[in-house]
Design brief:
The protein is of the alpha+beta class. Helix content is 34%, strand content 28%.
Length: 158
């Protein structure tokens, strides 16, 4: 029996894929659990159109992410924090939300704080590498942490 999968099924296929399975497997497992539908010609045609549309959307999304990555990497990102006197250490570490706000302000592109992944807590003034997890692409950006008291940069966490 030929079926169109509505969801990913381990060991069988992914959503939108037409598969051939035994009648009993289809009738006793896949169809009652609404994991698949019977693949008629109309269903196959609709699935083909949907897959073409999804492929175009994916290509557009990847292109937009590449442009976003280029823009974020080429823009200087500055975050400020309060520094301990006579030291290069910050009173508190810079959080992902502060970095996301700095990226949003510098580039005009809204970045969710859960997309920002510092490799270690950012507790010192200077340049730091931070991983930015876009949907299909992971990029490394450099952020500059400066002393808030000297009026450099913008204040994001008050």
């Amino acid at each position: 029996m030929e079926l169109l999968l509505k969801q990913n099924v381990r060991g069988l296929g992914t959503a939108g894929q037409v598969v051939r399975v035994a009648d009993g497997y289809a009738q006793n497992f896949l169809l009652p659990r609404r994991l698949a539908i019977i693949a008629t010609e109309a269903v196959k045609a609709r699935a083909a159109q949907t897959s073409e549309r999804l492929a175009k959307e994916k290509a557009t999304k990847q292109q937009n992410e590449a442009q976003l990555a280029t823009k974020v990497q080429s823009t200087p990102i500055v975050v400020t924090g309060k520094v301990v006197p006579n030291s290069q250490n910050l009173y508190a570490a810079i959080h992902e939300s502060e970095i996301a706000a700095a990226i949003t302000q510098a580039t005009g592109i809204a970045i969710s704080p859960d997309k920002v992944q510092p490799s270690e807590p950012l507790k010192k003034v200077g340049s730091h590498k931070v991983l930015l997890d876009l949907n299909q692409k992971k990029i490394t950006i450099t952020i500059e942490i400066k002393n808030r008291d000297h009026g450099e940069g913008k204040t994001f966490a008050e």
